[in-house]
Structures are given as C-alpha cells and as structure tokens.
Amino acid sequence: MHVLILGGTTEGRRLAETLDADGVRVTSSLAGRVAAPRLPPGEVRVGGFGGAEGLARWVREHQVDRVIDATHPFAGTISFHAARAAATTHVPLLALRRPGWTPVEGDDWRAVDSLEAAARAVPELGRRVFLTTGRMGLAAFAEVADVWFLVRSVDPPEPPLPPRAEVLLDRGPFTLEGEREVLRAYGIDVLVTKDSGGAATAPKLTAAREAGIPVVIVCRPPVPDGVPVAATVEEAAAWAHRPGR
Q: Residue 19, class by beta-carbon neighbours within 10 Å (0-12 exposed, 13-18 middle, 19+ buried)?
C-alpha cells in the first residue's frame, strides 16, 4: 500500500504519523511555501507536480494506491488538480478537512467570499486591523490606504503589502492570553481571518469576542464535486486501510 498525502497541515502530518506507524508506505507532498516546515515521517517531496497531468503522472510512476488531500482548506487549486488526477488514474481520492469554525453568542462575524471582499469591508469597520490570512494573498489589501494592518505570518511576506503595515512573524498554535495581548498591545479594532478551522488558531476568535471586536471571516471554497470528505485523521486512516480500489 502506497498512500500519497497532499499535506502541509497539522492533520496531514498526524495522518502520516498514523499510517507510518501502521506500516503503510506514505509519501507526503508539501507545497514548499514555508521555509522550515515541520516534516512528517515517511517519504517527503516538496514542490508542485506541474498541474493535474503532472500529478497523474507521478501517481502512476510511483504506484500510488490512495491519494488523500489534506491540504489547507483554502489551497483550492491543488484540490481540483487532485480530483482530475484521481479521475484520470482511477486511484481513490479522499479530502481530509477539519470542520470550520462556528460562531457563538457574542461573536460579531462578517462573512465574505474572498480576500478582495474582506479588503472592501475593513474600512467600514475600523482603522487598526489584525490580518491573519497568511502571507499569500496580501495583494488584495495593497490598495487599502486609510487602514493600518498588523500582518501575521510564519515567513516574511513578499510585496505588495498594504501601505501602512507592520509584520509580526509567528507560528501557531497560539494561546488565548497571547492573542488577548496582541489585540491590546496593538490597539486592534478589527480581525480578518480565513475560516481555517481547528484549535491552533482559534483563540484569536475568543479574544475578539471578549474585546467586542468585529471579525471579517473569509468563507472556504468548496471541495470538488464527487470527492468524499473525512473530518478527522482517524476517519481518513480508516479509509486508507479499506481493501481494493
């Protein structure tokens, strides 16, 4: 059994650990956007495949029996490439997606469909924005001149950036006390995030709720039609062990 995990998430790394411990041959593919990623056990490859056709060719050449898309919920392009490659090679494909966040009483969330829509929304909500959407896609905010941004990312972002911005380099998981301090120290009055789900970055939502700060939340893109979805590592591991194609 050879399982290809399209990874880069905590769930992808945990799935590789689980399957490797079970004696399954695992190859984790990482996009290479983070300079020093936390490597999972098993085989690891870094970089793109060259589109759906390149991924299909790699799957055939390396005799892959299962493909599990455990990429970030917003890494939409690779998910559609995986769906096309799976259809071409007739190799089963599963999407592992952590559940999205759900608002609770006291939250002030403003759901939008894109980073561009988030950029249009923030000037109406405040003047000091905590931007936690990662370093990719910051160009959407590059024309927002009358707002100051605190941009948090793992690695230094490349331009274009908002004209009034400070970069905060940090890697989760984050604590509630730490997020409270960020909002207080920088005088944040708006939080912008993607609906990534999971516990590692959720404390910022609690801190924003406590502070009465509005949250502009970018909704997830859909999983490709026809691709089954697992919500947990355990479900994905059980799927990988199913016999046959």
A: buried
pLDDT tens across 144-156, in order?
999 999 999 988 9
Burial class (CB in 10 A: 0-12, 13-18, 19+), 196: buried
d(CA 27, CA 1): 11
pTM above 0.70, yes or no: yes
- The closest alpha carbon to 26, from 82, 71, 57, 68, belongs to 68
- Tell me whether residue 163 is exposed, middle or buried, using C-beta atoms within 10 angstroms of its C-beta: 0 to 12, 13 to 18, 19 or more: middle
Token pair for residue 179?
A: 């997020």
Q: Rounded mean pLDDT of 74-102?
A: 93
pLDDT value at position 244? Answer: 67
**H, E, C per residue of the chain:** CEEEEECCCHHHHHHHHHHHHCCCEEEEEECCCCCCCCCCCCEEEECCCCHHHHHHHHHHHCCCCEEEECCCCCCHHHHHHHHHHHHHHCCCEEEECCCCCCCCCCCCEEEECCHHHHHHHHHHCCCEEEECCCCCCHHHHCCCCCCEEEEEECCCCCCCCCCCEEEEECCCCCCHHHHHHHHHHCCCCEEEEECCCCCCCCHHHHHHHHHCCCEEEECCCCCCCCCCEECCHHHHHHHHCCCCC
pLDDT single digits (tens) 200-212? 789 999 999 999 9
